[in-house]
Amino acid sequence: MRVPLEWLLEHCDPGLEVAEIESRLTMTGTKVEAIHHHGVWELERFVVGRVLSVEPHPDADRLRVCEVDLGSARPEGPAVIVCGAPNVALGQTVAVALPGAVMPDGTKLKAAKLRGVASEGMILAEDELAIGPGHKGIAVLNELAASGMLPSGVDLAPGAPLAQALPIATEVIELEITPNRPDCLGVYGVARELHAATGAPLAPPPWPQDGDEQGHADAATQDAGEIDGLTVKVDCPDLCSRFTARVFDGVKIAPSPPWLKARLSAAGQRPINNVVDITNYVMLLTGQPLHAFDLDRVVGGTLTVRRASAGERLLTLDGEQRTLDAEMVVIEDAEGPTSLAGVMGGSRSEVQEDTSTVAIEVANWHGPSIHRTSWALGLRSEASSRFEKGLAPEQCMQAQAVATWLMRELCGADPRPGTIDVCEPLPEPAQIRLRSRRVARVLGVPVSPARSQEILRALDFEASPVDGEQPPGAAEPDLDLLVTVPPLRRADVTREADLIEEVARIDGLERLPATLPARRGAYGMLSERQRLRRRAIDALVGRGLYEVLGWTFASPALADKLRLPVDHVLRSGAVALENPLSEEQALLRTTLIGSLLDIAARNRSRGVDDLHLFEVGTVFENARSETGVRERTSIAVLLTGRLQPVTWDAADPPYADFFAVKALLEALADVLRIAVDCQPCSTVPFLHPGRSAKVLATGTQIGWIGELHPEVTNGFELGSDGGGTGRPCAMELDLDLLIELADVEHAYTDLISFPALHRDLAVTLPVQVPAAEAIAVVRGAAGKLLASAEVFDVYTGPQVGEGRRSLALALSFRAPDRTLADEDVEPLRAKILAALTQIGGELRG
Asked: DSSP string spanning 124-176?
């Protein structure tokens, strides 16, 4: 929300610089996103001028050469200014920018020659001063003053500062208003916050009661649903808790005065005409949206609030045909819908240049309904953004009062007697007891009841002292407060803790001391699952990997990039979102590899090839049953490029490959104390068919591992074999299964009492026999005395024959109760060789 500083200070002026105002508001919970400058710069360069003569330009039909009296701003005499406005004329009082002036777009004005004639300034139109959209002609100050659109007594003498006549510059505070604070969606609500934060006086509310000296409509003749010329019916009171309307005759449609257009422009609104500008101005001031109907275009003189019919169509003010459904609310006349309730008016009854009778509608709509309508139609407006946060019904008459006064002042309107007010019973104001002892316990520091009362009253709460608890040994009871919640805070403040928060944020959260909770024996600890998860993450971080966080959503195109066939579970099991953020995020991801590849592609496009990444996240699968969507946690790794940085003694470090990522798998298995097994697998479409494997634990598949298929790496522009990133490889495991299978018992084995006996064994095997299978056979044959068996060399060549390879195995034998001798190991060695023979093995001579 954009709040012009000049407008804000009109209601509460703490006498502070804008930076200090920003700090006070932000520290009390009304976050200031930015401070903008709206309008022109170098104000001393903008002055009042009087046109002394107007002559045609000798070389341009549409230009005029004007002689302009600038008074003391140009002691050497009148300035010659070339002007292209069609309405410039002799004797006008005009707004002039001198050379050196900085325009709203940042352009610095210079003296220049226009078609050969020197121009010593610029006669300005509204848009060139950022006080309105007008550019068809210059702003004529004496005409504005004569029509009462300038402040009375303003100095329009040549050379007078223009800023005294027109609001040509202001600072604008951009606020982030949280959904629970719709009371701050109006300038006066923000002024109330500033008043509470600084203690500066707050001006009286800008919505005086009807019938006062400002000449508002007389509410004494109020009728529930009908006044002369207009009838209102509400068929859905659950979606419209209050509908108010007033009728104005003799309305003169005209441009708004400069002060009003300037405020709307600074707040981000486009001035249109006085009636529409009044509705926008009142909305920005009070936070309550309004809508103006041309009553002569309301067929039948009746407005009915009802739910829309499915398929019903409405042409809204933005010129779009909207197709409605039965959950939306419309306001209709005798010919059908004329307004989309709470979102946007319809074009059929909009205020136009010939409008003379206006009905101002101020209503309260059901917030969730307005939010749904706005989302379903893709149509957000200033009105819908306020209604969806939940406004108070009491705001309706406040906005009506301000609008009535402005309609009289700016449109010459004559209000018809009475006000339509179709209203559900207003809720009784809530009363909450604020205990001083409770404030001290929650905040860790006492706040006096008088200070709490001062804060709450500044925020428009009613607070009255009452007797509270009497502490043991105290002569008198504590003093508590009985607090009445104002209507605008009804939905936000519902309990004592909310009141304590109000006191704390205004009294100064930064001043609260650091204290421990009063509860004794309170402590927290990680669950077993959390400890195992952190152990797995630490294992990868300790080996130089970086954790990343990818989108939970995926693009439908990802399946093709991963080469997934139509019937593949990662494709067919994808869950489609009903309300995706975009087409690129229309599915819930079924694998983590997609987000890792996206991140790697983004890094490589910026020159980073060597990536060691992992992610822990949720993946989703359509269970296609009553259980709905199945969720599980996965852990995935992606390696690209070199495994180590280039150094002076390692000019060509190794690149990522299958065995690099397999080492990470074994590291995870070690920290979780799980025995894993890799078996050849060529059924994962995005993995290289000859360099991939499925990962098993206790016979259950828990994931996959391997180098990525060249088509996949090329699709993500990561290169392929021999490229700058080597052979990108990846792994993805079901972390839920890993944790379930993890050995959490801390069992230790004596390693030093008795030494191990080491034997090396070289055997030749068919090349199709995996080394892992050979190791498994060795372990099965050797029994419990075999402490470890590892492959330390592999040889292929003519000495072992075609189709065979030699594996050199390092075997370690150990007994827990004695030192082993050769005669203990030789029988085991014979059993091992016999077992290897069963899979085609031979002892290498």
From this structure: -BSGGGTS-S--SSB-BHHHHHHTT-S-TT---STT-BGGGTS--EEEEEEEE
